[in-house]
Amino acid sequence: MNKKTQKGFTLVELLMVLAVVGLLASILIPTAGSIRESALKTLCKAQLSQYINAIVQFKSQYGYYPFARGNKDYVIDLSDPEVSQEFIEIMSGRDAKSGKSKSTGGNRKRMSFHDFSENEFYILEDDLYSLTQLADRFNNTNIRIMIDGDGDGFIYPRPSMIAPTRPRAKIRASITAWVESDDLDKFPAYSLWEN
């Protein structure tokens, strides 16, 4: 009489495979999360660089920086909803809500120095975009841009929250930008002066 043998995994083999898969997942998942965050930070820094380029183009066109405040260095605080809306309108030459051409903040020719995309707007709780509030890819609105208003070629950013850290000395630049965070677990902080 022939005995039929069944092919398949034993319980021990199955448990070993599950243990190996679990071990690999516990190693790879946190690594993938940090890689994703790093990639988003890179995109956010590119967004800040685009804002700086738009401001430089504005100055090239009109001979002065937007939001000029006399002969001193100053910060454009985009976390303020009114300032954010004005920045959008100045840099795009359009009304932030209606999209119609608008002359504001010294952009009398209504030139578009930057076209804002959905990725740059704050996402509300109902998953709609606020067309008047800028945010980074982490949905953080604490965006700051510092401009060398006195024209000495140096600026010294002083973030007010926990992060990012202040530079050790003045930066040789006309404009820089950073995103602040008081809760390091919720929103990462970063700046253009850091590597």
The computed structural class is alpha+beta
* Beta-strand percent range: 5-15%
| Multimeric status of the protein | single chain
**Count of all domains:** 1
Biggest beta-sheet profile? 4 strands, antiparallel
- Contiguous helical run count: 2
Q: How much is the average pLDDT? A: 88
SSE topology string: HEHEEEEE
How many strands appear in the DSSP assignment?
Answer: 6
Percent of residues in helices: 25-40%
The best one-word shape is elongated
Spatially, the strands of the biggest sheet line up as: 1-4-5-6
Report what the structure shows:
This protein is of the alpha+beta class and 195 residues long. It has one domain. Helices cover 33% and strands 13% of the residues. The protein has two helices and six strands; from the N terminus they run H-E-H-E-E-E-E-E. A four-stranded antiparallel beta sheet has the order 1-4-5-6, covered by helices on one side. The longest helix is centred in the first third of the chain and has 52 residues, at 11-62.
Summed up, what is this model?
The protein is 33% helix and 13% strand.
Features:
195 residues; alpha+beta; 4-stranded antiparallel beta sheet; two-stranded antiparallel sheet
Topology:
Layout: H1 11-62, E1 74-77, H2 81-92, E2 121-123, E3 129-134, E4 143-147, E5 175-179, E6 190-191
Antiparallel strand pairs: 1-4, 2-3, 4-5, 5-6
